[in-house]
Design brief:
266 residues; alpha+beta; five-stranded mixed β-barrel; four-stranded antiparallel sheet; 6 helices; 9 strands; 25% strand; elongated
Length: 266
């Protein structure tokens, strides 16, 4: 999806160089409909430039900073030299992500979707998410809950979630911790089993989280959590250990959580 408006001064934009002149280069803005900017030779690179073609080439994709916009004369002044390498990489990745999201929108809505229909759904998603890519990524992770605040028909939301889960590669992180569980009661084995079941959540673990508990050597059990981000993973790990501790202590046993194994013989 391309924007129909104008970029703002200071904004970073992605463009393709479509013409090189002695005084600078013309850049076709990839994110804006029918918009073209000019990067003066003094803004192409730092230092004195003898030949513009020593620094850029036609067809090259560049990231530029918008210096000034004059809508009345339809002129957009750009600077390539004012964009550092970190900004360039970050903007290119953002642009690539939005291209992916555009393809996902067409998969969800159909290749023949009208511009008005596409724009309506896109605006609804953008009202609750920072970008279309974020909307699809959140839908892949959280399912229908990610779209609960979005003003869309239920069938459209379901299609977006389905498309997201089939196409979005969700970044996951893994964290590991250990819990020592002991119970000297005659039926201590049953209490330990109950504590392990409690650690596993008894169905209370969020859908986007994978949590497993395994025996690694008496009295130690390993808890592994896979989640979309470290904050969620750490919280679920600590919660699982706390559930196990509360369960075993309620019947007179003891439970202790720690991050590293006591013995390195796993």
């Amino acid at each position: 999806m391309k924007y129909s408006g104008w970029p703002d001064p200071g904004e970073l934009v992605v463009g393709k160089i479509d013409e090189i002149a002695d005084f600078g280069v013309f850049v076709d803005l990839e994110e804006y409909e029918d918009k073209r900017g000019l990067c003066h030779i003094s803004e192409v690179a730092s230092g004195w430039i003898k030949n513009v073609r020593d620094h850029v080439r036609e067809g090259q994709t560049v990231v530029a900073k918008v210096l000034e916009v004059d809508e009345s004369s339809k002129q957009i002044d750009l600077s390539i030299k004012d964009v550092n390498e970190h900004q360039r990489k970050e903007k290119i990745q953002e642009w690539k992500n939005e291209q992916k999201a555009d393809n996902w929108m067409l998969l969800a809505l159909g290749e023949d979707v009208s511009d008005d229909r596409y724009e309506s759904v896109a605006n609804a998603l953008l009202s609750e998410h920072e970008s279309l890519y974020d909307a699809f990524e959140n839908a892949a992770i959280h399912g229908a809950d990610a779209l609960s605040g979005v003003d869309l028909d239920e069938d459209v939301s379901e299609t977006i979630v389905e498309t997201a889960r089939e196409n979005v590669s969700v970044p996951y992180v893994d964290v590991t911790g250990y819990v020592d569980l002991e119970c000297s009661a005659p039926d201590g084995i049953d209490h330990l089993k109950a504590a392990l079941e409690a650690a596993e959540g008894n169905g209370e673990v969020p859908e986007e989280v994978e949590l497993t508990v395994a025996y690694v050597g008496s009295p130690e059990y390993r808890i592994r959590v896979r989640a979309p981000d470290y904050k969620t993973a750490e919280a679920e790990l600590e919660t699982a250990a706390e559930r196990a501790r509360e369960s075993i202590e309620s019947v007179g046993g003891t439970g202790t959580f720690h991050r590293e194994r006591h013995e390195d013989n796993e």
